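User: Can you help me understand a structure? I only have the sequence.
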Amino acid sequence: MIDRPQYLKALRTYRDVPLVKILAGIRRCGKSTILEMLKADLLKDGIRENHIIFMRYTSEEFDDGMTAKDMYQSIKMRMTDRGRYYLLLDEIQEVEGWEKAVNSLLEDEDTDIYVTGSNSRLMSSEISTYLSGRYVSIPIYTLSFAEYLDFKKDSSLSVRQQLNEYLRFGGFPIIALGNFDERSAYQIAEGIYNSVITNDITRRHSIMNYDLFNRVVKFIVENVGKTFSANAIVKFLKSEGRSLSVEAVYNYLEWLEKAFVIYRCQRYDLNGKSVLKTQEKFYLADASLKYCIMGFNPKSIAAMLENVMYFELKRRGYEVHIGKNETKEIDFVAVRRDERIYIQVCRNMPDESDREVANLLEIRDHYPKYVVTLDELACGNINGIKIVHMADFLLCNDY
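Assistant: Let's start by predicting it. Here is the structure, written out as tokens:
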């Protein structure tokens, strides 16, 4: 088992705090392994094994008919003596009404509770009734580049070569742990995607026109890193002779978000200091989801660099927006407490440098500004704008 210390650190921070710790992310991003890491950490700190209750609620191991009452009673049966129990409950969304059982265990027993899940039943809007103010959400993402290098520590490739591999194969742990060719890697990613679409979206929301839904997904995948609206999708479908309402598109986008397939990034007006509700961008939970649907195309790397950067900033705890500075766009405005950074992402320099640097120079404040690139020879400083190689930015938390 390869540790993911960032998540273990977060779990230690909240250990024994009377809150339910909710670990949520796309299927196969490593949530179950993180729970196993937590169990090992608890044992190392002297917690007795019979006071660590690890339950996995996958459909293969439990009947779909399990109720919240069944869940509560099965856990209570294992609490045979006094003292605190640590409950590690994996893929809990498979149990209808799980919030009731967890709430009772939190209120009535001496417990420290950790749960994982991969669909909308783990979203705050759906658990507020029973756990309002008594939970903390810890988002789980696929591997960062630094984690990817840990998984590939026996590789003979250079860091730069492994970055190219990471951009191409993505960060699902199951892919990173193997030595797959492109076809096999994308087959695995496609299996994950199909599982999410089938179990967390089409079946739950009774989507009848599966082909039309998939066409909307394909549009989003094709436009990663570009601003668009629900109206734009409707118009595009109309040009193909298909009909779909704006309301239906909004529903599809929401369901994809709640299954952690896509993440919404809103625009922020730097002058008006307000979040804009139109022309958002969406990023994919992992680059491999694009390539398993569309096939790999070297021309798509530029957009996927943005995708990688968005999630790196999220992992570091930033609130991330697209910046709008009058008519100019800043790829990312990232805010964390009283810190702020501005980032432009581009594949090559110097062809793209004039636009990227000029947009940043027009921002009249003293927060750090970066152009992050794959261009090996361009790194340096231009009028206070730091030009940084993507690999260096991803591996250094000082940026």
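Now, to help you interpret it: The longest strand covers residues 274-284. The mean pLDDT is 91. Let me know which part you'd like to focus on.
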